[in-house]
Structures are given as C-alpha cells and as structure tokens.
Amino acid sequence: MRRKIVAGNWKMNKTFDEAEDLLFGISDELANNSPEEVSIVVFPPALYLELANDVANENNFFTGVQNISEHESGAYTGEISAAMISSTGASFAILGHSERRMYFGETDAIIARKIDQAIKHNITPVYCCGEVLEERESEKHFEVVEKQIGQALFHLTKEDFSKVVIAYEPVWAIGTGRTATPQQAQEMHAFIRKVLAAKFGETAANETPVLYGGSCNAANARELFANEDVDGGLIGGASLKASDFVKIANSF
Ligand code: 13P
User: Fold this and answer.
1) Which candidate among 44, 81, 234, 236 keeps its CA 20 to 30 Å from the CA of 6?
2) Which amino acids bring their CB within 6 angstroms of ligand 1?
3) How far is the CA of 218 from the centre of ligand 1 (A)?
4) What's the predicted TM-score (pTM) here?
5) Model confidence over 119-164: pLDDT tens digits?
6) What is the CATH number of the domain that holds 136?
7) Total domain count for the chain?
C-alpha cells in the first residue's frame, strides 16, 4: 500500500515563540486525534528544526526543510546543506516549490542537483510540480508537468527514485483559495503516475506517494483525499493552525 502523507509547509511564517506554540498545538491535537497509517511532516523554517525535532520525536511525526543547497559544503554563504539537515534528524525536504522557481530562479536542472543531495544524505525529497494559470488555460498543464518531472527526476536510478515523494501543486491554486477540483486533482495525479510508470515501471509508479497542494484546507481535504491517486496533501496556509492541520491529517 502507498504511504499516505500530510505535510505542512510553514513557508516564511512564525517567530520562535509562535513556532513553539504551533508545534505544541499539533502535539496536543494529535494526542486526541492521531490518524492511523498517515505520516505527518512539518516543514518549519530551518532554524527551528532542533525544537521541531524534539516535539516531533515525542509525538510520532516527522520534520523537514523547505529548501537545501545544491552543493555539498564550503563557501556558499547563507546556504544550508543536506548533510547539515540530515545531522539534525530532519528527514524530508521540499524541493522545486513554485515559490523557489519563481522568486529564486530555480530551474529543473538546479532542482535535480538538490534532489541528488537530498537522496545522498537520506533526506526524502518532496518534489513539487505544477502549472501556472496561463498554462492550464491554454491546456498545456499535462505537458508542463511531464517536462518538470522528466527534467528533475528521470536521471535517477530506480532505487533512488523509490525514495521520492511528489507533490502536484497547481500554481494558480497556491494561496489563492481557488482549489483544484477533486476531478482536476485526480486527473493530474493519474497522469503523473502514468508518466512515472513509463520511465520507472508500474510498481515504482504505484508505490510513489503523490500529494496535492494548493488551498487544501480542513473543509476540502476529505473530498480531495478520497481520490484513488491522491495520497495526501502539502498544506500551506491551513498548516499554520494546529487544529486545522491535524483535522486535515484525519481526512482520509
Ligand atoms: P496554500 O495551502 O497556502 O495554498 O499553499 C500550498 C503550498 O504552497 C504548499 O507548499
């Protein structure tokens, strides 16, 4: 059976005290309502990882980062390497998020190198792909996503690919309140699985978790997760409130 995952991308939000409140809030909510067979991951700003790891370890959830360097180590001021992240005990990294592509010039080639770094250091990459509105409106969304997947993941061996999680995040749905319909999500997730099967085989494609992200919240998660090929969510805004986030994790 494929792994189900609900992950919270905090983006650039929360001071230290607020982060502490949110982490303890998640732990309190989970004490009352812990989903079975769902991996929960939080992605706080990296400088709160030590705190997040402590709370996560005690409460059976995982932590990750929102970015890693494409380089191994050395003179890269301001960067954080995969080895450093791994040494804290964090185990996931969001890579290829549309905000990194848009505001920080990350190309699929750069993201491919970050994926390699993550895998090398035992960090599970959550690879984000998804089209912008104009591409959806001109019906290029399948083509765009296929290309993003090919360029960032097709250099991997089958074994390394088996460590990857994919998040389909249509850019027009991110932070807009305009969620993809369950049909749109299912259609794209099934397409992604088809693309993966052609390259890595049916078994690998069937075992890869494909998450949905983009205005997913406590009110719409259930109808999105009910789809055969939707294995959970990568949640932005709604992951900043403990009760909403844990409710989403209980929406299967
Ligand atoms: P929202 O849930 O705020 O739309 O953000 C989605 C996202 O970008 C998660 O990575």
Assistant:
1) 81
2) 9, 97, 169, 174-175, 213-216, 234-238
3) 13
4) 0.98
5) 999 999 999 999 999 999 999 999 999 999 999 999 999 999 999 9
6) 3.20.20.70
7) 1
